[in-house]
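@here heads up, posting the sequence + SMILES for the flavin-adenine dinucleotide run so it's all in one place. Ping me if the SMILES looks off, I pulled it from an old spreadsheet.
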Amino acid sequence: MNIDSEVLVIGAGISGLATAFRLARRGIGVAVIDAAPRPGGVIGSERRDGVLYERGPNSTLDTGPFINEMLGELGILGERIDASAISSRRFIVRGGRLIALPTSPPAFLGTPLFSLGAKLRLVREPFIARAPANSEESVAQFVVRRLGREFLDYAIEPFVAGVYAGDAARLSLPAAFPRLNALEQRYGSLIKGQVLGARERAKRAERSRNVAASFSFREGMQTLTDALARAVGRVETERRATGVRRLSDGAIAVTVEHAGATTARRARAVVLAVPADRAAELVREFAADAARALDAIPYAAVASVASAYRRSDVEHPLDGFGVLVPKVEKRRILGSLFSSSMFDGRAPRDTVLLTTFVGGDRDPHLPSRPAEEVAAIAREELGALLGARGAPLFCAVTHWPRAIPQYVLGHLDRIRRAEQAQAALPGLFLCASYRGGISVGDCMRSGCQTADVVADFLGARSRDRD
Ligand SMILES: Cc1cc2nc3c(=O)[nH]c(=O)nc-3n(C[C@H](O)[C@H](O)[C@H](O)COP(=O)(O)OP(=O)(O)OC[C@H]3O[C@@H](n4cnc5c(N)ncnc54)[C@H](O)[C@@H]3O)c2cc1C
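bot reply: prediction finished. Complex C-alpha coordinates:
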Protein backbone atom coordinates (compact mmCIF):
# COMPACT_ATOMS: atom_id res chain seq x y z
CA MET A 1 0.00 0.00 0.00
CA ASN A 2 1.31 3.41 -0.95
CA ILE A 3 0.79 5.69 2.07
CA ASP A 4 2.00 9.22 2.82
CA SER A 5 2.15 8.73 6.59
CA GLU A 6 1.13 5.99 8.98
CA VAL A 7 -1.22 8.44 10.71
CA LEU A 8 -2.63 11.73 9.48
CA VAL A 9 -3.96 14.05 12.18
CA ILE A 10 -6.40 16.69 10.94
CA GLY A 11 -6.30 19.75 13.20
CA ALA A 12 -3.25 21.25 14.94
CA GLY A 13 -4.96 22.54 18.07
CA ILE A 14 -3.79 21.14 21.41
CA SER A 15 -5.87 17.95 20.89
CA GLY A 16 -4.31 17.10 17.52
CA LEU A 17 -0.79 18.14 18.49
CA ALA A 18 -0.84 16.14 21.74
CA THR A 19 -2.07 13.08 19.81
CA ALA A 20 0.61 13.49 17.16
CA PHE A 21 3.36 14.05 19.70
CA ARG A 22 2.51 10.90 21.62
CA LEU A 23 2.35 8.89 18.38
CA ALA A 24 5.74 10.25 17.32
CA ARG A 25 7.19 9.35 20.75
CA ARG A 26 5.95 5.82 20.18
CA GLY A 27 7.88 5.74 16.91
CA ILE A 28 4.83 5.95 14.66
CA GLY A 29 5.11 8.08 11.51
CA VAL A 30 2.64 10.96 11.79
CA ALA A 31 1.82 14.12 9.89
CA VAL A 32 -0.54 16.92 10.94
CA ILE A 33 -2.48 19.31 8.70
CA ASP A 34 -4.38 22.42 9.71
CA ALA A 35 -6.54 24.84 7.77
CA ALA A 36 -5.21 27.89 9.67
CA PRO A 37 -1.96 29.73 8.91
CA ARG A 38 -0.36 28.64 12.20
CA PRO A 39 -0.70 25.67 14.56
CA GLY A 40 -2.24 26.02 18.03
CA GLY A 41 -5.97 26.30 17.27
CA VAL A 42 -7.56 28.65 19.81
CA ILE A 43 -4.26 28.97 21.74
CA GLY A 44 -2.47 32.19 20.77
CA SER A 45 -0.16 34.47 22.77
CA GLU A 46 0.63 37.99 21.58
CA ARG A 47 3.01 40.75 22.64
CA ARG A 48 2.22 44.43 22.39
CA ASP A 49 3.89 47.41 24.08
CA GLY A 50 5.69 45.16 26.54
CA VAL A 51 2.46 43.35 27.47
CA LEU A 52 1.98 39.61 26.90
CA TYR A 53 -1.68 38.72 26.42
CA GLU A 54 -3.63 35.67 25.37
CA ARG A 55 -6.34 35.54 22.71
CA GLY A 56 -7.61 32.17 23.98
CA PRO A 57 -6.83 30.25 27.16
CA ASN A 58 -4.80 32.15 29.79
CA SER A 59 -3.75 29.14 31.84
CA THR A 60 -4.71 25.58 32.56
CA LEU A 61 -4.79 23.28 35.56
CA ASP A 62 -2.10 20.81 36.51
CA THR A 63 -4.41 17.88 37.19
CA GLY A 64 -1.98 14.98 36.87
CA PRO A 65 1.63 13.87 36.43
CA PHE A 66 1.10 13.33 32.67
CA ILE A 67 1.25 17.11 32.18
CA ASN A 68 4.76 17.60 33.56
CA GLU A 69 5.88 14.40 31.86
CA MET A 70 4.88 15.86 28.50
CA LEU A 71 6.43 19.26 29.28
CA GLY A 72 9.65 17.45 30.27
CA GLU A 73 9.68 15.44 27.03
CA LEU A 74 9.19 18.67 25.11
CA GLY A 75 12.02 20.39 27.01
CA ILE A 76 9.74 23.24 28.19
CA LEU A 77 9.31 22.30 31.86
CA GLY A 78 11.66 25.18 32.74
CA GLU A 79 9.38 27.58 30.83
CA ARG A 80 6.37 26.64 32.94
CA ILE A 81 5.23 29.29 35.42
CA ASP A 82 2.64 28.73 38.10
CA ALA A 83 0.01 31.27 39.02
CA SER A 84 1.12 33.52 41.88
CA ALA A 85 0.09 32.70 45.46
CA ILE A 86 -2.32 35.62 45.39
CA SER A 87 -4.28 33.93 42.59
CA SER A 88 -5.84 31.53 45.06
CA ARG A 89 -8.21 34.43 45.78
CA ARG A 90 -11.14 34.57 43.37
CA PHE A 91 -13.79 37.26 43.47
CA ILE A 92 -17.51 37.04 42.80
CA VAL A 93 -19.72 40.04 42.22
CA ARG A 94 -22.66 40.44 44.60
CA GLY A 95 -24.71 43.63 44.71
CA GLY A 96 -22.21 45.23 42.33
CA ARG A 97 -19.29 44.63 44.76
CA LEU A 98 -16.39 42.19 44.51
CA ILE A 99 -16.39 39.63 47.34
CA ALA A 100 -13.64 37.03 47.76
CA LEU A 101 -14.88 33.45 47.43
CA PRO A 102 -14.30 31.81 50.84
CA THR A 103 -11.68 29.05 50.80
CA SER A 104 -11.89 27.74 54.38
CA PRO A 105 -14.78 26.80 56.71
CA PRO A 106 -14.25 29.87 58.99
CA ALA A 107 -14.13 32.17 55.94
CA PHE A 108 -17.30 30.52 54.66
CA LEU A 109 -19.09 31.20 57.94
CA GLY A 110 -18.05 34.86 57.88
CA THR A 111 -18.49 35.68 54.20
CA PRO A 112 -21.13 38.18 53.08
CA LEU A 113 -21.27 36.28 49.75
CA PHE A 114 -23.95 33.92 51.10
CA SER A 115 -26.89 34.63 53.41
CA LEU A 116 -27.24 32.83 56.74
CA GLY A 117 -30.04 30.75 55.19
CA ALA A 118 -27.74 29.60 52.37
CA LYS A 119 -25.02 28.66 54.87
CA LEU A 120 -27.42 26.68 57.04
CA ARG A 121 -28.78 24.96 53.92
CA LEU A 122 -25.33 23.45 53.36
CA VAL A 123 -25.52 21.58 56.67
CA ARG A 124 -28.30 19.45 55.15
CA GLU A 125 -26.19 18.38 52.17
CA PRO A 126 -24.82 15.09 53.57
CA PHE A 127 -28.39 13.94 54.33
CA ILE A 128 -29.86 14.53 50.87
CA ALA A 129 -30.43 11.27 48.97
CA ARG A 130 -28.39 10.62 45.85
CA ALA A 131 -30.07 10.79 42.45
CA PRO A 132 -30.87 7.44 40.82
CA ALA A 133 -27.83 6.06 38.96
CA ASN A 134 -27.84 6.83 35.22
CA SER A 135 -30.24 9.74 35.63
CA GLU A 136 -29.19 12.92 33.87
CA GLU A 137 -29.69 16.19 35.69
CA SER A 138 -28.60 19.62 34.56
CA VAL A 139 -25.85 21.22 36.60
CA ALA A 140 -28.41 23.72 37.94
CA GLN A 141 -30.89 21.01 39.00
CA PHE A 142 -28.14 19.11 40.79
CA VAL A 143 -26.78 22.14 42.64
CA VAL A 144 -30.21 23.42 43.70
CA ARG A 145 -31.17 19.95 44.94
CA ARG A 146 -27.99 19.40 46.94
CA LEU A 147 -26.82 22.90 47.91
CA GLY A 148 -29.70 25.32 47.34
CA ARG A 149 -30.51 28.14 44.92
CA GLU A 150 -28.20 30.78 46.36
CA PHE A 151 -25.21 28.50 46.05
CA LEU A 152 -26.09 28.01 42.39
CA ASP A 153 -26.48 31.73 41.75
CA TYR A 154 -23.37 32.97 43.56
CA ALA A 155 -20.89 30.08 43.25
CA ILE A 156 -21.64 27.46 40.61
CA GLU A 157 -23.43 29.45 37.89
CA PRO A 158 -20.64 32.08 37.62
CA PHE A 159 -18.05 29.29 37.70
CA VAL A 160 -19.85 27.46 34.87
CA ALA A 161 -19.99 30.71 32.89
CA GLY A 162 -16.26 31.19 33.56
CA VAL A 163 -15.26 27.72 32.39
CA TYR A 164 -17.79 26.88 29.65
CA ALA A 165 -19.25 30.32 28.94
CA GLY A 166 -22.31 28.13 29.37
CA ASP A 167 -25.66 27.96 31.11
CA ALA A 168 -25.88 25.73 34.20
CA ALA A 169 -29.55 25.04 33.39
CA ARG A 170 -28.58 23.48 30.02
CA LEU A 171 -25.30 21.72 30.82
CA SER A 172 -25.49 18.03 31.67
CA LEU A 173 -23.94 17.18 35.05
CA PRO A 174 -22.56 13.73 34.07
CA ALA A 175 -21.12 15.12 30.82
CA ALA A 176 -19.79 18.50 31.97
CA PHE A 177 -18.82 17.67 35.56
CA PRO A 178 -18.42 13.87 35.66
CA ARG A 179 -16.40 14.04 38.88
CA LEU A 180 -19.18 15.82 40.77
CA ASN A 181 -21.65 13.27 39.50
CA ALA A 182 -19.34 10.43 40.53
CA LEU A 183 -18.80 12.00 43.95
CA GLU A 184 -22.52 11.93 44.66
CA GLN A 185 -22.97 8.42 43.27
CA ARG A 186 -20.01 7.05 45.19
CA TYR A 187 -20.24 8.79 48.56
CA GLY A 188 -23.87 9.99 48.58
CA SER A 189 -22.69 13.50 49.45
CA LEU A 190 -20.34 16.13 48.01
CA ILE A 191 -19.04 17.13 51.42
CA LYS A 192 -18.24 13.53 52.43
CA GLY A 193 -16.86 12.88 48.95
CA GLN A 194 -14.50 15.88 49.15
CA VAL A 195 -12.91 14.50 52.31
CA LEU A 196 -12.74 10.84 51.32
CA GLY A 197 -11.93 11.56 47.65
CA ALA A 198 -8.91 13.67 48.65
CA ARG A 199 -7.32 10.62 50.31
CA GLU A 200 -7.83 8.50 47.21
CA ARG A 201 -6.46 11.17 44.86
CA ALA A 202 -3.38 11.50 47.07
CA LYS A 203 -2.74 7.78 46.49
CA ARG A 204 -3.03 8.25 42.71
CA ALA A 205 -0.83 11.41 42.81
CA GLU A 206 -3.71 13.37 41.26
CA ARG A 207 -5.00 16.73 42.33
CA SER A 208 -8.57 17.87 42.68
CA ARG A 209 -9.43 20.66 40.27
CA ASN A 210 -10.10 23.03 43.13
CA VAL A 211 -6.57 22.70 44.52
CA ALA A 212 -4.60 21.94 41.31
CA ALA A 213 -2.13 24.66 40.31
CA SER A 214 -2.97 26.93 37.37
CA PHE A 215 -0.01 27.30 35.10
CA SER A 216 1.15 28.91 31.89
CA PHE A 217 4.56 29.60 30.37
CA ARG A 218 6.91 32.58 30.52
CA GLU A 219 6.01 33.46 26.92
CA GLY A 220 2.38 32.39 27.22
CA MET A 221 0.30 29.34 26.40
CA GLN A 222 1.50 29.26 22.81
CA THR A 223 4.86 27.98 24.09
CA LEU A 224 3.11 24.63 24.53
CA THR A 225 1.61 24.31 21.05
CA ASP A 226 4.73 25.74 19.37
CA ALA A 227 6.90 23.18 21.18
CA LEU A 228 4.54 20.35 20.24
CA ALA A 229 4.52 21.42 16.58
CA ARG A 230 8.33 21.61 16.56
CA ALA A 231 8.66 18.19 18.17
CA VAL A 232 6.18 16.56 15.77
CA GLY A 233 8.01 18.10 12.83
CA ARG A 234 5.51 17.41 10.08
CA VAL A 235 2.86 20.05 10.75
CA GLU A 236 1.56 21.60 7.56
CA THR A 237 -0.63 24.69 7.79
CA GLU A 238 -3.14 26.21 5.34
CA ARG A 239 -4.30 22.74 4.38
CA ARG A 240 -8.01 22.10 4.80
CA ALA A 241 -9.37 18.55 4.82
CA THR A 242 -12.58 18.38 2.80
CA GLY A 243 -13.27 14.66 2.60
CA VAL A 244 -12.38 11.31 4.15
CA ARG A 245 -12.97 7.91 2.53
CA ARG A 246 -11.88 4.32 2.87
CA LEU A 247 -9.77 2.78 0.11
CA SER A 248 -10.17 -0.81 -1.06
CA ASP A 249 -6.89 -1.84 0.66
CA GLY A 250 -8.13 -0.58 4.06
CA ALA A 251 -6.14 2.66 4.03
CA ILE A 252 -7.90 6.01 4.37
CA ALA A 253 -7.71 8.81 1.81
CA VAL A 254 -8.13 12.43 2.91
CA THR A 255 -8.89 15.12 0.36
CA VAL A 256 -6.87 18.23 1.15
CA GLU A 257 -7.25 21.73 -0.27
CA HIS A 258 -4.15 23.89 -0.36
CA ALA A 259 -3.47 27.07 -2.34
CA GLY A 260 -6.37 26.41 -4.71
CA ALA A 261 -5.31 22.83 -5.47
CA THR A 262 -6.86 19.58 -4.24
CA THR A 263 -4.75 16.54 -3.42
CA ALA A 264 -5.34 13.20 -1.69
CA ARG A 265 -3.31 12.05 1.32
CA ARG A 266 -3.29 8.39 2.28
CA ALA A 267 -2.75 7.06 5.78
CA ARG A 268 -3.40 3.86 7.69
CA ALA A 269 -5.20 5.82 10.41
CA VAL A 270 -6.71 9.31 10.54
CA VAL A 271 -7.47 11.38 13.65
CA LEU A 272 -10.12 14.08 13.34
CA ALA A 273 -8.96 16.68 15.87
CA VAL A 274 -11.29 19.40 14.62
CA PRO A 275 -14.40 21.04 16.16
CA ALA A 276 -17.65 19.04 16.01
CA ASP A 277 -19.22 20.84 13.03
CA ARG A 278 -16.04 20.27 10.97
CA ALA A 279 -15.91 16.63 11.97
CA ALA A 280 -19.58 16.31 10.94
CA GLU A 281 -18.75 17.54 7.42
CA LEU A 282 -15.97 14.99 7.11
CA VAL A 283 -17.96 11.93 8.25
CA ARG A 284 -21.39 12.74 6.76
CA GLU A 285 -20.94 10.61 3.64
CA PHE A 286 -20.31 7.33 5.45
CA ALA A 287 -21.86 7.99 8.90
CA ALA A 288 -24.92 10.21 8.50
CA ASP A 289 -26.27 9.76 12.02
CA ALA A 290 -22.86 10.42 13.59
CA ALA A 291 -22.72 13.63 11.54
CA ARG A 292 -26.16 14.67 12.81
CA ALA A 293 -25.04 14.04 16.41
CA LEU A 294 -21.84 16.07 15.89
CA ASP A 295 -23.83 18.90 14.29
CA ALA A 296 -26.14 18.96 17.30
CA ILE A 297 -23.31 19.85 19.73
CA PRO A 298 -23.77 23.57 20.40
CA TYR A 299 -20.83 25.94 20.86
CA ALA A 300 -20.81 29.14 22.91
CA ALA A 301 -19.68 32.33 21.20
CA VAL A 302 -17.22 34.38 23.23
CA ALA A 303 -15.16 37.51 22.71
CA SER A 304 -12.02 37.94 24.77
CA VAL A 305 -10.87 41.48 25.48
CA ALA A 306 -7.29 42.05 26.61
CA SER A 307 -7.07 45.54 28.15
CA ALA A 308 -3.87 47.14 29.44
CA TYR A 309 -4.30 50.00 31.92
CA ARG A 310 -1.92 52.20 33.84
CA ARG A 311 -1.74 50.70 37.34
CA SER A 312 -2.70 54.11 38.77
CA ASP A 313 -5.89 54.17 36.66
CA VAL A 314 -7.40 51.06 38.34
CA GLU A 315 -8.70 51.48 41.89
CA HIS A 316 -9.02 47.79 42.79
CA PRO A 317 -5.77 46.21 44.06
CA LEU A 318 -6.33 43.27 41.63
CA ASP A 319 -5.11 40.96 44.37
CA GLY A 320 -6.44 37.71 42.97
CA PHE A 321 -7.05 35.45 39.97
CA GLY A 322 -9.95 37.49 38.69
CA VAL A 323 -13.63 38.14 39.08
CA LEU A 324 -16.65 36.14 37.99
CA VAL A 325 -19.99 37.80 37.43
CA PRO A 326 -23.18 35.87 38.33
CA LYS A 327 -26.01 36.02 35.78
CA VAL A 328 -28.39 37.32 38.46
CA GLU A 329 -26.23 40.44 38.73
CA LYS A 330 -27.39 41.34 35.19
CA ARG A 331 -24.10 42.78 33.95
CA ARG A 332 -22.63 42.53 30.44
CA ILE A 333 -19.42 40.58 31.06
CA LEU A 334 -18.91 36.99 32.17
CA GLY A 335 -15.85 37.90 34.17
CA SER A 336 -12.34 39.27 33.99
CA LEU A 337 -8.96 37.72 34.72
CA PHE A 338 -6.35 39.79 36.52
CA SER A 339 -3.76 38.42 34.09
CA SER A 340 -0.82 40.52 35.29
CA SER A 341 -1.50 39.51 38.92
CA MET A 342 -1.72 35.82 37.97
CA PHE A 343 1.66 35.63 36.26
CA ASP A 344 4.84 37.65 36.65
CA GLY A 345 6.20 39.34 33.58
CA ARG A 346 2.88 39.88 31.79
CA ALA A 347 3.12 43.68 31.83
CA PRO A 348 5.60 46.43 32.76
CA ARG A 349 5.57 47.45 36.46
CA ASP A 350 3.31 50.47 36.03
CA THR A 351 0.82 48.60 33.83
CA VAL A 352 -1.88 46.01 34.55
CA LEU A 353 -3.44 43.54 32.13
CA LEU A 354 -7.07 42.44 32.41
CA THR A 355 -8.61 39.75 30.19
CA THR A 356 -12.37 40.09 30.05
CA PHE A 357 -14.83 37.66 28.49
CA VAL A 358 -18.21 38.62 27.05
CA GLY A 359 -21.00 36.65 25.41
CA GLY A 360 -21.44 32.97 26.14
CA ASP A 361 -24.89 31.50 26.57
CA ARG A 362 -26.00 34.64 28.42
CA ASP A 363 -25.44 37.00 25.52
CA PRO A 364 -24.78 34.90 22.39
CA HIS A 365 -24.96 37.79 19.89
CA LEU A 366 -22.59 40.14 21.69
CA PRO A 367 -19.32 38.52 20.52
CA SER A 368 -20.23 39.15 16.87
CA ARG A 369 -20.70 42.90 17.46
CA PRO A 370 -17.94 45.19 16.13
CA ALA A 371 -14.71 45.16 18.15
CA GLU A 372 -15.15 48.81 19.25
CA GLU A 373 -18.57 48.02 20.72
CA VAL A 374 -17.26 44.96 22.60
CA ALA A 375 -14.28 46.99 23.84
CA ALA A 376 -16.60 49.78 25.03
CA ILE A 377 -18.72 47.30 27.02
CA ALA A 378 -15.61 45.82 28.65
CA ARG A 379 -14.36 49.31 29.49
CA GLU A 380 -17.68 50.36 31.02
CA GLU A 381 -17.95 47.22 33.14
CA LEU A 382 -14.32 47.34 34.29
CA GLY A 383 -14.97 50.95 35.25
CA ALA A 384 -18.02 50.04 37.32
CA LEU A 385 -16.59 46.91 38.96
CA LEU A 386 -12.87 47.63 39.35
CA GLY A 387 -12.77 51.40 39.22
CA ALA A 388 -10.80 51.37 35.94
CA ARG A 389 -10.72 55.01 34.81
CA GLY A 390 -10.31 56.46 31.36
CA ALA A 391 -9.24 54.71 28.21
CA PRO A 392 -6.99 51.63 28.41
CA LEU A 393 -3.47 51.93 27.00
CA PHE A 394 -4.61 49.39 24.44
CA CYS A 395 -7.41 46.91 24.01
CA ALA A 396 -7.32 43.81 21.78
CA VAL A 397 -10.61 42.06 21.02
CA THR A 398 -10.69 38.49 19.69
CA HIS A 399 -13.97 37.10 18.40
CA TRP A 400 -14.57 33.39 18.88
CA PRO A 401 -17.89 32.60 17.14
CA ARG A 402 -17.55 28.93 18.15
CA ALA A 403 -15.39 29.14 21.24
CA ILE A 404 -16.34 26.30 23.56
CA PRO A 405 -18.43 23.15 23.00
CA GLN A 406 -21.38 22.91 25.34
CA TYR A 407 -21.90 19.55 27.01
CA VAL A 408 -25.66 20.12 27.21
CA LEU A 409 -28.29 17.57 28.31
CA GLY A 410 -28.09 14.54 26.01
CA HIS A 411 -24.39 15.13 25.30
CA LEU A 412 -23.19 11.66 26.28
CA ASP A 413 -25.78 10.10 24.00
CA ARG A 414 -24.69 12.43 21.17
CA ILE A 415 -21.07 11.35 21.73
CA ARG A 416 -22.05 7.66 21.59
CA ARG A 417 -23.75 8.32 18.25
CA ALA A 418 -20.78 10.36 16.98
CA GLU A 419 -18.48 7.46 17.87
CA GLN A 420 -20.34 5.34 15.34
CA ALA A 421 -18.27 7.17 12.71
CA GLN A 422 -15.25 5.30 14.08
CA ALA A 423 -17.04 1.96 13.68
CA ALA A 424 -18.19 2.88 10.15
CA LEU A 425 -14.62 3.65 9.03
CA PRO A 426 -12.06 1.52 10.91
CA GLY A 427 -8.87 3.53 11.32
CA LEU A 428 -10.74 6.80 11.89
CA PHE A 429 -10.56 8.35 15.39
CA LEU A 430 -12.23 11.40 16.94
CA CYS A 431 -10.33 13.59 19.39
CA ALA A 432 -11.27 17.18 20.26
CA SER A 433 -12.61 19.31 23.07
CA TYR A 434 -16.23 18.19 22.55
CA ARG A 435 -15.22 14.88 24.10
CA GLY A 436 -13.24 14.12 27.27
CA GLY A 437 -13.21 17.66 28.67
CA ILE A 438 -12.70 21.16 27.33
CA SER A 439 -9.66 22.39 29.23
CA VAL A 440 -6.20 22.44 27.68
CA GLY A 441 -5.10 19.79 30.20
CA ASP A 442 -8.12 17.63 29.34
CA CYS A 443 -7.27 17.91 25.62
CA MET A 444 -3.66 16.87 26.35
CA ARG A 445 -4.95 13.83 28.22
CA SER A 446 -7.46 12.96 25.46
CA GLY A 447 -4.70 13.32 22.86
CA CYS A 448 -2.45 10.88 24.73
CA GLN A 449 -5.31 8.40 25.16
CA THR A 450 -6.26 8.65 21.49
CA ALA A 451 -2.64 8.08 20.43
CA ASP A 452 -2.55 4.88 22.50
CA VAL A 453 -5.76 3.62 20.91
CA VAL A 454 -4.42 4.45 17.43
CA ALA A 455 -1.15 2.64 18.21
CA ASP A 456 -3.11 -0.45 19.34
CA PHE A 457 -5.15 -0.32 16.13
CA LEU A 458 -2.01 -0.11 13.96
CA GLY A 459 -0.38 -2.90 15.98
CA ALA A 460 -3.40 -5.18 15.45
CA ARG A 461 -3.51 -4.31 11.74
CA SER A 462 0.16 -5.12 11.25
CA ARG A 463 -0.25 -8.45 13.13
CA ASP A 464 -3.16 -9.26 10.76
CA ARG A 465 -0.94 -8.53 7.76
CA ASP A 466 1.95 -10.74 9.04
C1 LIG B 1 -11.53 32.21 24.54
C2 LIG B 1 -11.19 30.89 25.15
C3 LIG B 1 -10.69 30.84 26.45
C4 LIG B 1 -10.36 29.61 27.03
N1 LIG B 1 -9.82 29.60 28.27
C5 LIG B 1 -9.34 28.43 28.77
C6 LIG B 1 -8.55 28.42 29.97
O1 LIG B 1 -8.31 29.48 30.58
N2 LIG B 1 -8.07 27.23 30.41
C7 LIG B 1 -8.27 26.07 29.73
O2 LIG B 1 -7.78 25.01 30.17
N3 LIG B 1 -9.01 26.05 28.59
C8 LIG B 1 -9.53 27.19 28.09
N4 LIG B 1 -10.22 27.20 26.91
C9 LIG B 1 -10.55 25.90 26.28
C10 LIG B 1 -9.39 25.30 25.50
O3 LIG B 1 -8.51 26.31 25.08
C11 LIG B 1 -9.92 24.57 24.25
O4 LIG B 1 -10.96 23.67 24.61
C12 LIG B 1 -8.82 23.76 23.55
O5 LIG B 1 -7.69 24.57 23.31
C13 LIG B 1 -9.40 23.20 22.25
O6 LIG B 1 -8.39 22.51 21.55
P1 LIG B 1 -8.74 21.59 20.29
O7 LIG B 1 -7.45 21.16 19.72
O8 LIG B 1 -9.72 20.55 20.66
O9 LIG B 1 -9.52 22.56 19.27
P2 LIG B 1 -9.01 23.85 18.47
O10 LIG B 1 -8.05 24.63 19.24
O11 LIG B 1 -10.28 24.51 18.01
O12 LIG B 1 -8.25 23.26 17.20
C14 LIG B 1 -8.90 22.70 16.10
C15 LIG B 1 -8.03 22.93 14.87
O13 LIG B 1 -8.65 22.29 13.75
C16 LIG B 1 -8.40 23.08 12.60
N5 LIG B 1 -9.38 22.71 11.58
C17 LIG B 1 -10.73 22.84 11.61
N6 LIG B 1 -11.28 22.32 10.48
C18 LIG B 1 -10.26 21.83 9.74
C19 LIG B 1 -10.19 21.15 8.49
N7 LIG B 1 -11.29 20.86 7.78
N8 LIG B 1 -8.97 20.79 8.01
C20 LIG B 1 -7.83 21.07 8.71
N9 LIG B 1 -7.85 21.71 9.90
C21 LIG B 1 -9.05 22.07 10.43
C22 LIG B 1 -8.56 24.51 13.11
O14 LIG B 1 -7.89 25.43 12.23
C23 LIG B 1 -7.91 24.41 14.49
O15 LIG B 1 -6.54 24.77 14.45
C24 LIG B 1 -10.57 28.40 26.30
C25 LIG B 1 -11.08 28.46 24.99
C26 LIG B 1 -11.39 29.69 24.42
C27 LIG B 1 -11.89 29.73 23.01
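MO: Residues 10-16, 33-36, 41-43, 56-60, 240-241, 273-275, 278, 302, 304, 400, 403-404, 432-433, 438-441, 443 surround flavin-adenine dinucleotide (CB under 6 Å).
MO: One more: The chain has three domains: 5-42+221-297+408-465, 45-86+298-405, 114-204.
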